[in-house]
Amino acid sequence: MAAKINIIDPPSSASSDSDIGETNADFSEVFPDIEAEEEKSGDFYHTPASPITVPYCPRPPSTGSQKSPRSRRQRTTSLNQQTTKPVTDSIIRTQHRTIYTAGRPPWYNSVGQKVEPFVIGICGGSASGKTTVAEKIIESLGVPWVTLLSMDSFYKVLNEKQHNIADRNEYNFDHPDAFDFDLLITTLQRLKEGRKVEVPIYNFLTHARESKTKTMYGANVIIFEGILTFHNSKVNEMLDMKIFVDADPDVRLARRLRRDISQRGRDLDGVLKQYTSMVQPSFNHYILPLMSHADIIVPRGGENEVAIQLIVQHVQTQLQLRGLKLREELAQAYTVNKQFKMPRPDTVRLLPTTPQIRGLHTFIRNKDTPRDEFIFYSKRLIRLVIEYTLSLMSFVDRTIETPQGLHYHGKKMATSKLCGVSILRAGETMEQAVCDVCKDIRIGKILIQTNLQTGEPELYYLRLPKDIKDYKVILMDATVATGAAAMMAIRVLLDHDVLESNILIVSLLMAESGVQSIAYAFPEVQIVTTAIDPEINDKFYVLPGIGNFGDRYFGTEPSSENEL
Amino acid sequence: MGSQDHETSNGFEFCKNYKGLHVLKLHDQIKELQTILRDKNTSRSDFKFYADRLIRLVIEDSLNQLPFTNCDVITPTGATYDGLKYKSGNCGVSIVRSGEAMEQGLRDCCRSIRIGKILVESDLDTHEAKVVYARFPEDISQRHVLLMYPIMSTGNTVSKAVNVLKEHGVKEECIVLSNLFCTPQAVQTVLDLYPKMKISTSEVHPVAPNHFGQKYFGTD
């Protein structure tokens, strides 16, 4: 869908409640193994369209900041309106979290390599305002795609004895030993590589990890917050910026008392006992010394607007240095390549151009073709390209017995693990054909739209079969122009641990430059198409092309075609 | 039965000898479909599913044999695409019963194409094929005919059908047979009799899966 310039309206974006309900209904059949319950509860961590992937876990009375997520969000709402600029209209607020409906811009460069995200570590004592600082940074940054990882997710699972101790308020949750640093390091490392991670959900009643996990994705900015963020040297190495949030001990105690007593229904003695016997000593012994690792110390926590603005400015500068203009770069890369007459890469599989194929192209390329004919003939062409794609799979010999009693030496597809992934919207038109030729095939979806202002593709929505890493993936998009959307989709698949050689990108029409870019960035991805056109115009449409395939197929073209 | 390579080369040998024979470009995917259709352990639903897939491929391929002219069109981007256009005036003719299995495949490619039918039955005593029923579009003599018959083992039935078409004034060179499996003898019989017609098939193999019609329609 590289050729699309439509952009969805914020209210109808993938993150709205009603939409999630619908998709849940759609997908419960296709992916019975995905926890439907999780979706119904209104949690959309696994959809990358919600850029803040904060694991929602009830905090224990004995740890850090304990404001209920609800009250906290309400407070940031009012602050947000004062501090942030145009981002506001792309933010939806739900009961539990803030959702930025803007899509995820490219997190890799024009050769498909990932650009390192900026990782911010926030450390500070319990109730010092770490989360507030994190949220304010996110809001002021205006970066649509941020992942917020909390150290609370990495508490160790307690055995029965420890569990009893915890019940008596005598387990020290503020001690470094309470955390599973190994898991934390692997998770942070993977996030930093832009990969998908499964973050444990810690249940503070059972002191065990729940069987479900939260899926989080890498992002342009990752914020990691917790009381002992700087305790481990390996973690410190991964942090690009270390912030220590400092608050007056009296203020912190006061916040803790208010929170624990009024919101958690605990008694004054219990809270004070825990504070003086564990929270305070741990703070002095473990947390406070970590201040020496910090790049910036923020006194007075979230109220310190000046400090936050300074941090934001620094991060923005850093992001600009790493920033990307992907589509432009792709187009330019091609002009350079063209001068050197790059041979067509050998991963490109072009359908033999029979009269039949040309005849079908004639119908769908003609601007005067009515929609019913357009749909009919593109479906035929899609069927052919899908059949052709299947023939590219690897096969093994198989001998069978015929009803005539003779043996027949035949073939069988080597893998039964085949799944389709369509790039919305135009790629969806190809789903039916895949279902028609492969019984019971699983279909994943990726929504990528072009940002009208930047001209860059952005990732909005993603649903993939759970064990997609074991599959051969047929990635479908009707047209590939610059290849920007296709590359983003391939990058997403790779981030889900799909093998590069297991991906086939299938489309009806590609531009030479898109083919080159994809093949150059992902040399093992097979590229299947029915025609390759030589050029792209300045609107990123293929020439001679077929126009906006999705619009023509679904009948959503603007009244004046020339305005495209 | 010879090795697989031998069988395959059989098909290509025939291609050389008979200009009218066109075998679908063999790749493993088509081989898999053929394997499933020939396997006696294939369930009926699978059989029908994979038969329909192979039929669709054969039909799409047969359409390549029909006449076309060049045709330039303007694309929505304002550029010109140097395309082509199929001539109108084609029709399908299916040989009852198994040929009817291919009608849907043709309909899926050409929505409003006219389809005629021929019923050929073999005489129980003489084993001679006889045309019992034939119904064609009125102006069939002016048209190109896509004759549909999936399994051809002797070629007698098809020969009779072609004969009937010729009697109705269809030119021999305007007949294309769409076929899934045929034997070398059948190709020989038909193309020796009617050298100008064309055959489009997916496999030339000494043994034809004669159970096709029974299994497809579930009358076995």
Automatic annotation (TrEMBL), chain A:
Residues 76-86 have a biased composition (Polar residues). Pathway: Pyrimidine metabolism; UMP biosynthesis via salvage pathway; UMP from uridine: step 1/1; Pyrimidine metabolism; CTP biosynthesis via salvage pathway; CTP from cytidine: step 1/3. Residues 119-307 form the Phosphoribulokinase/uridine kinase domain. Pfam families: PRK, UPRTase. It is found in: Cytoplasm; Nucleus. Residues 7-18 have a biased composition (Low complexity). One of its GO terms (biological process) is pyrimidine-containing compound salvage. The keyword Cytoplasm applies. It catalyses: uridine + ATP = UMP + ADP + H(+); cytidine + ATP = CMP + ADP + H(+). Its main location: cytoplasm. Keywords: ATP-binding, Cytoplasm, Kinase, Nucleotide-binding, Nucleus, Phosphoprotein, Transferase, Ubl conjugation. May contribute to UTP accumulation needed for blast transformation and proliferation. This is Uridine kinase. It comes from Psylliodes chrysocephalus.
Automatic annotation (TrEMBL), chain B:
Pfam families: UPRTase. One of its GO terms (cellular component) is nucleus. Keywords: Cytoplasm, GTP-binding, Nucleotide-binding, Nucleus. This is Uracil phosphoribosyltransferase homolog. It is found in: Cytoplasm; Nucleus. InterPro entries: PRTase-like, PRTase_dom. The keyword Cell membrane does not apply. It comes from the Eukaryota.
